[in-house]
Design a protein that fits this description.
mainly beta
């Protein structure tokens, strides 16, 4: 990667924090291998396998060289110009600690990495990074983070959907101020918040605080859930050219698309965490990945973006990989295999996974 730091002084952080639990608060993490009880890729008993360490000190990407020792999410999309962008959420590094939030780590709320269009069988290797393009004050009770939850390119413009987190809670819960879009006109190098796209956590928009994007049939489908995990999932859509116009969105009410009122949206799935949705030509269906209430990674399929969605199929059982969350689908077709990124909170880093369809 192009941006580098001096050699990481691991000894300076050996005694900083204890290993984190599976709770929502990313301040409660230990991303240093071995100290967190993890070293190398997890070995899973079923057909789904971990194939590449994407971030952290165990990764060939050496993200510690850009002060990303630990991070989460890993939202991938094609930039429309021969590259893949991957947005990560809260990233722990060295520097000025955020003691106000109860953390001895320095935090970036978001980071965007660039790569060529990779062959996931060979791993995902990054070329460059933009750290913290959309800073957050990180003040509990005001805004503790501004985290990307989805990304997409539309007509040469890059869009990220982000959630403004006010407070971290327990057991996969947190409170948001709003969700919003940000745009980049230079391939992801610089980002501008689109303040007119803010959806406050009320009036039906509470169901669209975390998002996933899907481009299909001339529309941008924007899936949503309330803040946190083990929630219902919803879907809205707007014409491609109107992705940044809140008033242009229609909401699926269970039978029809209703214009204008977010409160008209009816649940399309239940018991989900972070969502990722894509068309898959191998199965001839839309595919949704998420976690279930037991934090197992599950897959659903549907013939149309709004559903009906199938019963969940377990890809990774929570007993085999505790504290896993946010399965994000690799944005290119890979035949009979489905690749996705998965965060493991125990090591607070992102892993590339492969499962047969």
């Amino acid at each position: 990667m192009k941006r580098s730091l001096s050699a990481l002084a691991s000894v300076a952080v050996v005694c900083l924090v204890a290993a984190g639990s599976a709770g929502a608060d990313p301040n409660d993490v230990m991303p240093i291998p071995a100290l967190n009880g993890v070293h190398g890729l997890p070995q899973l008993p079923g057909p789904t396998q971990a194939v590449f360490q994407v971030t952290g000190m165990d990764s060939p990407n050496r993200t510690q060289d850009v002060n990303v020792i630990g991070t989460d999410l890993g939202i991938m999309w094609d930039d429309g110009n021969g590259h893949m962008l991957t947005a990560f959420g809260d990233s722990a590094g060295l520097g000025l600690p955020n003691l106000l939030a109860g953390s001895v780590w320095a935090w970036n709320s978001n980071a965007v990495f660039r790569s060529g269009i990779p062959d996931p069988a060979q791993g995902i290797h990054f070329d460059s990074v933009v750290l913290n393009p959309l800073p957050s004050p990180k003040i509990p009770g005001i805004e503790i983070s501004l985290i990307p939850t989805a990304g997409i390119a539309v007509d040469g413009v890059q869009y990220m959907s982000l959630m403004s987190v006010r407070e971290w809670g327990d057991h996969g819960r947190w409170e948001t101020n709003y969700s919003t879009l940000a745009a980049s006109h230079d391939g992801g190098q610089s980002w501008n918040p689109l303040t007119t796209t803010r959806r406050a956590n009320t009036d039906g928009h509470e169901n669209f605080q975390q998002n996933a994007f899907l481009a299909a049939d001339g529309y941008i489908y924007r899936y949503g859930t309330p803040a946190g995990r083990d929630n219902a999932g919803f879907v809205s859509r707007a014409p491609r050219s109107a992705i940044a116009d809140i008033d242009a969105y229609e909401y699926w009410d269970g039978e029809n698309w209703q214009a204008g009122e977010a409160s008209a949206a009816a649940p399309i799935v239940g018991g989900v965490g972070e969502l990722s949705v894509a068309w898959n030509g191998h199965v001839g269906q839309y595919v949704m990945l998420t976690t279930d209430p037991a934090t197992s990674v599950v897959m659903r399929t549907a013939p149309a973006p709004e559903g009906p969605w199938s019963a969940p199929r377990v890809l990774v059982d929570s007993a085999a990989l505790p504290t896993a969350y946010a399965p994000m689908i690799f944005p290119y077709q890979t035949g009979s295999d489905l690749y996705f990124l998965l965060t493991v909170h125990r090591q607070y880093n992102v892993i590339l996974m492969r499962t047969p369809l």
